[in-house]
Design goal:
With about 200 residues, the chain is an alpha/beta fold. It is built from 8 helices and 5 strands; from the N terminus they run αβαβααβαβαβαα. α1 crosses α7 and α5 packs across α6.
C-alpha cells in the first residue's frame, strides 16, 4: 500500500530534524571537549609588552597580573571591572607594591560585562599608544575575553595569560563541568551574535 504524501513528508521532516539535532549535538560536544581542555591550561607571558589588563572575577587573576607588573613584563596595568568603592589597597594585599608600582596601576570601575571590559580597556590602551597587551583572566573565560578585546582593538597584539580557576583544579566535578558548559554556551552566543539574547556577555 502506497504511503500518503502527507505522511511521507512528515516522516522525512522528522528524520531531517533529528539528523540536524544529532549533528548539532555532536559538534557541540567536540567543541566543548576542546574548550574544556584549553580552559585548564595556564598561559605564559611574553618577556615584554606595552601593558597588562586583568579582568576581575577572582583574587588569583589580580595577583597574577600584579606579579607580572612587579616582574617588569609591562610598565602599566589596568584592572578592569573593579567594584565601586574598592581601591588598590583592597586588591593588592597579596602582592605588596611600592609607591612607583602603585602609581602605574589604573582601576576601571565602569565594566560590568566582558564587552564592557574591552570597551573600558580600549581608550586606556590607545591613550598610551600600546601595541602589545597582556590579557589576564581565568582560562575558561579567556576565549570570550580575547574575542571582545580583538573586536574593540583590532590593531593591538594580544598575549593571553590564563589563570586556572580554583574550581577547576584537581579531578573534574559536576559543578565545574556545569560552569564550563555555561561559559562555552556564552562563547558561542558571542561568536554567533546572539549574546544579548542569551546573556552571553555576562562576566
Amino acid at each position: 500500500m502506497t504511503e500518503p504524501p502527507g505522511q511521507w513528508y512528515a516522516r522525512w521532516g522528522l528524520t531531517a530534524v533529528s539528523a540536524v539535532v544529532l549533528g548539532g549535538g555532536i559538534a557541540w560536544g567536540v567543541g566543548f571537549a576542546r574548550f574544556n581542555s584549553a580552559a585548564r591550561q595556564v598561559g605564559e607571558a611574553p618577556a615584554m609588552a606595552d601593558g597588562i589588563v586583568v579582568l576581575t572575577g577572582g583574587a588569583d587573576r589580580i595577583e597574577a597580573a600584579l606579579r607580572l607588573l612587579v616582574d617588569g613584563r609591562a610598565p602599566l596595568l589596568m584592572v578592569s571591572g573593579v567594584a565601586r568603592g574598592a581601591d588598590l589597597a583592597d586588591l593588592a594585599h597579596r602582592v605588596p607594591l611600592d609607591a612607583d608600582q602603585a602609581g602605574r596601576v589604573t582601576l576601571g570601575h565602569a565594566a560590568q560585562s566582558t564587552s564592557g571590559n574591552a570597551a573600558e580597556t580600549a581608550p586606556w590602551v590607545r591613550a598610551h599608544g600600546m601595541r602589545r597587551l597582556i590579557v589576564v583572566t581565568a582560562g575558561y573565560h579567556m576565549p570570550r575575553a580575547l574575542l571582545a578585546m580583538q573586536r574593540a582593538m583590532p590593531e593591538v597584539e594580544l598575549h593571553p595569560v590564563a589563570v586556572q580557576s580554583p574550581a577547576l583544579r584537581g579531578a573534574p566535578q559536576a559543578t565545574a563541568v556545569r560552569m564550563l558548559a555555561s561559559e562555552y554556551d556564552k562563547l558561542l552566543a558571542v561568536r554567533f551574535g546572539v549574546a544579548r539574547l542569551l546573556d552571553g556577555d555576562a562576566p
